[in-house]
User: Fold this.
Amino acid sequence: MLRVVGTSTRRGWLASVATLLTLAAQVAEAQFNVVIREGSEAAVPVAIVPFGWQGTGTPAFDFAGVVSADLASSGRFAPVATRDMVSRPTQASQVNFQDWRLLDASYLVIGTLAPDSAPDTFTATFQLFNVTSGQPMTGFRLQAARTDLRKAAHRISDMVFKEITGIEGVFSTQIAYVSEERLRDGTRQFRLIVSDADGENANKVAESTQPLLSPSWSPDARRLAYVSFEGGVSGVYIQTLRTGTRERVSQRAGVNSSPAFSPDGRSLALVLSRDTGNLDIHSLDLSTQVLRQLTTDAAIDTEPSWSADGRSIYFNSDRAGGPQIYRVGTEAGQRAERITFDCVYCARPRVSPDGKYVALVNGENNRYRIAVWNVQQRRLELLTPDGRLDESPSFAPNGAQIIYATRENGKGILASVSTDGRFKTQIASVAGDVREPVWGPFPRP
Amino acid sequence: MRSSLLVLATALTLTLTACNRGNTVPEDTGANTGADGGLATEGAGGGGGVQVSPLEAERQARLAELMRQLVVYFDYDQAEILPEFNALLQAHGQYLAQNPNTQVRLEGHTDERGSREYNIGLGERRAQAVRRVLMLQGVAATQLTTVSYGEERPAQTGSDEESWRLNRRVELVYR
Assistant:
């Protein structure tokens, strides 16, 4: 249970947020902790003061800690260290803006946390101020059960982020990724994990000694499609997260790979080689099981990504010699159109939610880096110029941030970059190799 | 002379039978090792300085050696069969054509560079290239299955040229 109530300032809406999906019968495993190791010089300093605790004993939850970590993870904000704060106001009347101007903080968040009369229920309030003008910007009251306090903190992060940047926050979303662990006896353990966007609440969705890859979210965030090599053959599966029930949707001869849900959730694009050994993009109607072949070229056609309107699919094909991005209409019998020309190796396209960009892997001179293709300007923009083995870019649902996989010291780690390339963060994993991060959609109320 | 040939032939048969029983790597029967195979010196004893060795036995030994090689390597982003693997594939092709009940699974792999799904495609293309060469030797389509693991099951875990070279491969797995 989490309730959000507008307070003091210009908005006064009341919203109730249904409990996010929880993964039934799964053991939570702390697969990685997010550690921001590389901030950006362009990051805006923001002060999140520890919330005033109005109960007894230790505070029920560290709101300021979670909100700070959230804002830092976007790369756009640099939270002021708590130890540098000369005052710790918890109410508007206690704020001395000069204290914060001296710390170069552009924005200030203060708040309180108090137990409710109902057991294990709490009320948090927060207020956001513009330090330069000394004016309040927004403020809300949130009610939440103890188990939903982290969720409430993410909601505060979303509201603060939106108020300052004008962009929807993605701190209440989830990500899926694949981890691989080598056990002492040499066997390998592949796991498909779903966690909150900050890496917390990691839940194992599937586990296998054979490779798992290419997770894809359904648009309602309730299901994941993925590839499993269980039994020594490739198959495409769809698993319902809440129940763990899963369905094998394709295990035809040859390659069964690269699933991608259509924006309406009714179809699944996938890549099949069938009897010919030649990979082509197909679209499977999930209710009728009718399979339509969308490409027929003798080249490798793979990595489909739907446009937001569902009318076209971007994909990777090496029909011109090396991997390049193409687009094909999803109506029957359409011809594919080549999109990228000026890259040596452009693979793994992912269309942004607004359709303006295609994130991809750009390979050149033995370096693989994340780039975006600007669809209108027909221009490639390199986002990770220092990268060497970057792969698997995935847009956040707000379109402003891209999470991707890279390698560091022989280990797979995750990183993110803003779509304009200005803000970068690295996400350090604690154990094992992690890769193929896929950002889930906004939670539905 | 005759008997040693017989031993060799038996050893070779044993090797190939071992394949049939599903071993990934045929057992080392010693048929073609320098230790006790001793092919090159076979028959040299009584010849008075003239070395005489049976060509058929040499051919069989060479064949057995090739049959023990179960990996074909590839250049970066390529699925062309390199000339140095022609003899290997010819040996396996002939053997499979002569043993139509034997099945082989062709597992295609790539190095870690580039995108994972494209590498699934590249691994499949490599497995298909090997499949085509084997079928040209008269191997039936029903004897061959392909699977591509892309970069998901590397033979070497390093991120260097040598690891990458050893990971760009098709493995022949006898069933």
Q: What stands out?
A: DSSP finds three helices and 32 strands in chain A. The radius of gyration of chain A is 23 Å.
